[in-house]
Amino acid sequence: MNNINNEKNSFNIDEFFDDYLKTPNFFKNRAALDSAFIPKELPHRNDQIKAIAQITACALKDANPSNIFIYGKCGTGKTAVVKYVGQKINQKSKEVFGKQPFWIYINCNNISTTYRIIANIHNKLDPKNPLPPTGVPLDIIINKVLNLLDDVVKDSICFIVLDEIDRIKDKSSRDNILYILSRINEELHSARVNIIGISNVLNFKDDLDPRAASSLCEEEILFPVYTAPELKEILASRSKVAFKDGVISEETLSLCAAIAAGENGDARRALSILRKAAEIAERRGLDKITQQHIYLARDKLDKDKVKDFIRNLPAQQKALVLAIYLLVKYTSSRPNKGLIYSAYSELIQIGMGLKPLTTRRISDLIKELELSGIISSEVKSFGRARGRTRIVDLEISEKQIRDAFENDLYWSNYLNYKPSFLKRANINIYGGVKYKSLF
DNA sequence: GATCCACAGGAAATTAAGGGTC
DNA sequence: GACCCTTAATTTCCTGTGGATC
């Protein structure tokens, strides 16, 4: 009997696909909602397109353009505009001269050390002979790249776009790579190199070595955040390409734009919400995207993001998140770093039998959690008796944390664990009469 | 005003792992 | 196989700091 029931309840993939094919298809071009899609029009970026075009145009006359530093918050169209102008320059150059400039696009979020950036340039110029991820002295690969540029790029220009340049690991690597690239033209015989740096951090330039800053920032272009009406126009323009007529109303687009504008004016976020809303409507077999789908999409994106983030953390960081959760749960207060470290140490030793990381490292991990939006924190001083410490607050609900740890092999058993020191007297989280350091 | 706590956080060093060269 | 190179993660060392308390 059970077998029959199981059989009835089991998922029939063939039926599912048949049913799916019967649902209305309201997409014309699904890829148009992807953040990597480069549309034919980029609304509200005329000034920036004009500025980059004016600077890079001299490449068409065999001159070397100034290096460009582009900055602005996430989702303000920086990468899209650079790629758009790149496409146009290539078209024009091919039309007139029958050849086109080289474009090497590197995302420093993934490729974030001096060696890796130079090796990546090498591999784009000579994909048949890729360099290994480590092991070759830097000066050797720089010489290889110089030879390749003169051989492959020859009498043309090579634009090297360093996207998310602020994500290069440390200050010395940032200064080093910019110094090497800015001097590269002095070593080249026929080819020329132009650098376009893109940063999400507005004051990135302030952290650079003055020599690196002056060579990178010969021209600077700011990308302001989009307003709600601007976001709406962007969404409308993409919707025309992505959807068939009548799939989405003006009001629904306005809501989606208003949500993204209210958060941080991020066009990428607005497109993600729209894409997710479209997927929800599609799975329900509907032929229209409604405002309810936009709200559902926003909530689902937020929940999934947090859950995936915590689930994919390494064991040490999971123990840290759990330590903060347990302290908040059992004290209803904002724990300080000292207590967090004590709870974390106890968990990592009891739960996994591992040696705890040092307090210095935990300070960095707390900051990383803060950057991801899981927690917020502030440094507060409590005077001579209780010193200066970082106070931490959870930015997500306790339920979201429980959900994320639910199926965790190790940590699901510790969701109700009370750190032993909380059972002792005279331990106050902060602002209490007595404070006692625990490590 | 000086003192002191409990760190914060920068910089350099260390360790382990992966890879190349001779 | 010895040696050299790189990366990433972490540790060690150090100076600086806010503000209640002395």
Alpha carbon gyration radius: 27 Å
The helix tally amounts to 17
Element string (H = helix, E = strand): HHHEHEHHEHEHEHHHHHHHEHEH
Helical coverage, percent range: 40-55%
Calculate the terminal CA-CA distance, rounded to whole Å. 60 Å
Oligomer: single chain
Trace the largest sheet across and list its strands. 2-3-4-1-5
Task: Name the overall outline.
Answer: globular
The total of beta strands comes to: 7
Beta-strand content estimate: 5-15%
Largest sheet: 5 strands, parallel
Mean pLDDT: 86
> What structural class should be given to the helix and strand makeup?
alpha/beta
In the predicted model, the low-confidence regions spanning at least 5 consecutive residues are 1-5, 428-439
Structural key phrases:
single chain, 439 residues, alpha/beta, 10% strand, globular, disordered N terminus, disordered C terminus, DNA-binding
Could you walk me through the main structural features you see in this protein, from its secondary elements to its overall organization?
The protein is 51% helix and 10% strand. Helix 7 (171-187) packs across helix 8 (210-216). The protein has helices at residues 2-9, 13-22, 46-56, 78-97, 114-125, 138-153, 171-187, 210-216, 228-242, 250-263, 267-283, 291-311, 315-331, 337-352, 359-371, 383-386, 398-405; strands at 68-72, 102-107, 157-163, 192-199, 219-223, 375-381, 388-394. The protein is built from 17 helices and 7 strands. The chain is globular. With 439 residues, the chain is α/β, with parallel strands linked by helices. Helix 7 (171-187) links the parallel strand 3 (157-163) and strand 4 (192-199). The protein has a 5-stranded parallel beta sheet with strand order 2-3-4-1-5, with helices on both faces. Strands 6-7 form a two-stranded antiparallel ribbon. The longest helix is centred in the last third of the chain and has 21 residues, at 291-311. The protein binds a DNA duplex (22 and 22 nucleotides) through residues 113, 115-116, 132-138, 140, 169, 336-338, 357-361, 363-364, 367, 379-390, 435, 437.
